[in-house]
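Collaborator request log, item 7. Partner lab (contact: R.S.) asked for a structural prediction of ethanolamine-phosphate cytidylyltransferase to inform their binding assays.
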Amino acid sequence: MEIESCSWHKDGLYFLSHLFGGIMISCALLRFFTKNLPKMPHLLRGSNSKKPAKKKVRVYIDGCFDLMHYGHANALRQAKALGDELVVGVASDEEIILYKGPPVLSMQERLTLVNGLKWVDEVIPDVPYVITEDFMNVLFNEYKIDYIVHGDDPCILSDGTDAYGLAKKAGRYKQIKRTEGVSSTDIVGRILSSADYVKKGKVSASSSQPTVSDEFETAKFNKSLPNSGHISHFLPTSRRISQFSSHKAPGPNSRVVYIDGAFDLFHAGHVKILKKAKQLGDFLLVGLYADQTVSWLRGDRFPLMNLLERSLSVLACQYVDDIIIGAPFAVTKDMISTFNISLVVRGSISEDNNPLLWDGAASDPYDVPKGMGIFRNLESPEVITTSSIAERIIANHEIYLKRNAKKEKSEKQYYAEKKYVAA
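Returned to partner:
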């Protein structure tokens, strides 16, 4: 029994040693052959491997951007939707004078407005009014522009050529839909129609507080004027407001800053005060006064832009998170609770001309936040006002009347010949 048992153990060890050797030889052969096989990255790489970065599409749009309005903002919004990065060219003062006449706003004011829009990634100042072949090559080679964008309204030069003909020929042109119901020409017309009112009773940034007698004369004068000195042709839709909205909501612990006003004829001063207000918290809520409130504060000829037009201009600003359309003149405790407002601010430059406010007959609209210790006055970074911009146009009214007459003729032709363009 012992001999048989020992023989069995010897046979088992012999078998195991051969089995182990066979396994080692198989592994060596497998390693040799797989080493010489061509690599197959799609099989060998893990599922979490990085894909090559996709090239960003850069689109370019230019303009004067004088008297910035929601039509300009909507053009930039549409242009941004055609790519990943939006580069905006702002025409120089010299070029605008050469082709259109003197601009109302300075280059710096126009740059502030364009930079303040939420869809803009990069701005090129002092671009030529007409895209030459040399400048087009600069855009393509230096700024890596993929497409040049313009609205569906034709841009014909004095010699009858298309200002964007070269871009079209190069196959690098894209078209967007023009925003109906507003133009810089239209806004200049509104201001000129209000010229008599501004001359009779105005408050400029540099003037002292108006006296009751001055405002009484203004009020008397206003009674002789029709309440609709200008007509807006803007047709607002809920979709357009949604397109401009940031679709943001403050978190439960967000510091909500509230600022209110007319924000009429949106300008560089508005952009800078909104930026300053946003820096004081996490979420900026802007209250826009109803048209009736603005008229009560400034006179029957104001606002120049109606409530929904003003709402879009403010929503387009990158520093604004949300707005209250038709905000009450007085900030109430219920309003502070409803929107979880942490701080109420107001700029130092104001155009509230109602004599009741100056005489103390009307209560302070900020009594409640002041009593709660959550009110702060902000020093306005600019002295620009709606009235001061209107004064620039009125001072050169003959030039702007001639320019408007020419532009109105071309705009009538556009509307007569226009066709539907998909957004």
